[in-house]
Amino acid sequence: MGRQRGFSLIELLIVVAIILIIAAIAIPNLLWAREAANEWSAVASIRTINTAEITSTACLIDSVLSGGKKSGYNFSEAPGTVATPQTTYYATAVPVTLNQTGTRSFCSFEDAVVRVQPTGAGSAANQPVRRCFR
Hints:
With 134 residues, the chain is α+β, with helices and mostly antiparallel strands. The protein has helices at 9-55, 63-66, 128-133, and strands spanning 69-70, 73-79, 89-95, 105-109, 114-117. It has one domain. The chain contains 3 helices and 5 strands; from the N terminus they run H-H-E-E-E-E-E-H. A 5-stranded antiparallel beta sheet has the order 1-2-3-4-5.
């Protein structure tokens, strides 16, 4: 009787085990990279809000950001005075789901410095965010 061609069950199990080991190594890194990209997008969005507030009220903010949610972050902006350009305001970016879409919160005031809250705590709806960032 001739030898049959193909893979044995043990060979297939070894290949599956190798694929699972590679996936176990790669998936956490992939999730971390997505979270880091969300955080950098939040910082860039806060900078965009700063530019829009300081220069004028022209249409400098895109429709996604003006909707209040972008790249896993909730954005909020509150003017302090009604003037063009804004002389006082603050903008915040808080993760939609803490430790999934981001781990840090960001904010900025009229000085245009982007500040970070490492714990991601804070909400744009309540003003304690302002105290814990300054």
